[in-house]
Specification:
141 residues, mainly alpha, globular
């Protein structure tokens, strides 16, 4: 996956996507209550996620954190939440970005989602359990 040229979202586009996504997340029947349990002040949360995506997409420094540890500590976040998260995120990308940028960012988001989902399932398993299921993700991403 190349992050070169006009396929890279700009700072303005990243901020727009993050803001729109969290506005929709707060209203989402499944995701909204989970976030409400953990985010009291949305502005700093959105800023942190903005910095995360600037790092992931633009290779900028400025994000500090461990997303897997944060999701594990939440205790009410499971791998089953990621398909809904990704579906909502994809809809926000499609609504706010040109197709090429939306596809690039979606591909990266799905990779991160799979990794987090795997990490949550792996951490929740006991020795000898079966491997985590990743079948809930579309193979087209």
């Amino acid at each position: 996956m190349s992050l070169a040229g006009s396929s890279i979202p700009t700072h303005e586009e990243i901020r727009t996507v993050v803001t729109d996504f969290y506005a929709k997340t707060r209203a989402h029947p499944d995701l909204g209550p989970i976030f409400a349990d953990h985010v009291a002040d949305w502005k700093p949360h959105e800023e942190k996620i903005f910095r995360f995506w600037c790092g992931a997409l633009l290779r900028e420094r400025g994000y500090s954190g461990n997303p897997l540890q944060k999701h594990l500590a939440a205790r009410n976040v499971t791998s089953d939440h990621f398909p809904a998260w990704l579906k909502l995120f994809d809809s926000v990308l499609t609504a706010n970005l040109p197709d090429k940028k939306a596809k690039l960012w979606s591909t990266l988001a799905h990779r991160i989602g799979k990794s987090l989902s795997f990490g949550l399932e792996y951490a929740g398993r006991k020795t000898g359990d079966t491997p985590p299921k990743l079948s809930s993700f579309s193979s087209s991403q």
